[in-house]
Amino acid sequence: QVQLVESGGGLVQAGGSLRLSCAASGRTFSSGAMGWFRQAPGKEREFVAGISRSDGSTAYADSVKGRFTVSRDNAKNTVYLQMNSLKPEDTAVYYCAARYSARYSSRSENYSYWGQGTQVTVSS
């Protein structure tokens, strides 16, 4: 079993930055890939970023490329999402997710464990 707890969300002005953290517990975390997703009101959950366990490779949604950076600290069982140059359209609840495979996926159905989410609000 893996438990995920996100933190770091909040209210920020457009152009600002936030760093989200996702702390994981459970022995399976050490072997799995991690992903960040978000869901805005009235919209479906969408992929934001993913990071593999095997080689640390990363992937990003086109809408956040060049602005967001995903990283992980396996010693701390924590994954981060650094968000810069935030825009009002980035406003959403952000979720981290874990899967057993070492390779990231952009599909939410491929993740077995989810955090409770953290709200990010970007004002214009």
Describe the structure in brief.
The chain is built from no helices and 11 strands. A hairpin with a 6-residue loop joins strand 4 (34-39) and strand 5. It has strands at residues 3-7, 10-13, 18-25, 34-39, 46-51, 58-60, 68-73, 78-83, 92-98, 113-114, 118-123.
Return Rg in Å: 13 Å
What is the averaged pLDDT score?
93
Distance between the first and last residues' Cα: 40 Å
- Tally the beta strands: 11
Structural class: mainly beta
Strand content: over 45%
Q: Total helix count?
A: 0
Helix and strand run: EEEEEEEEEEE
Shape: globular
Percent of residues in helices comes to under 10%
The profile of the biggest β sheet is: 7 strands, mixed
Low-confidence sequence ranges = none
Can you walk through the features of this model?
- There is one protein chain.
- The chain is an all-beta fold and about 120 residues long.
- The chain has no helices and eleven strands.
- It has strands spanning about 5, 10-15, 20-25, 35-40, 45-50, 60, 70-75, 80-85, 90-100, 115, 120-124.
- The radius of gyration is 13 Å and the shape is globular.
- The mean pLDDT is about 95.
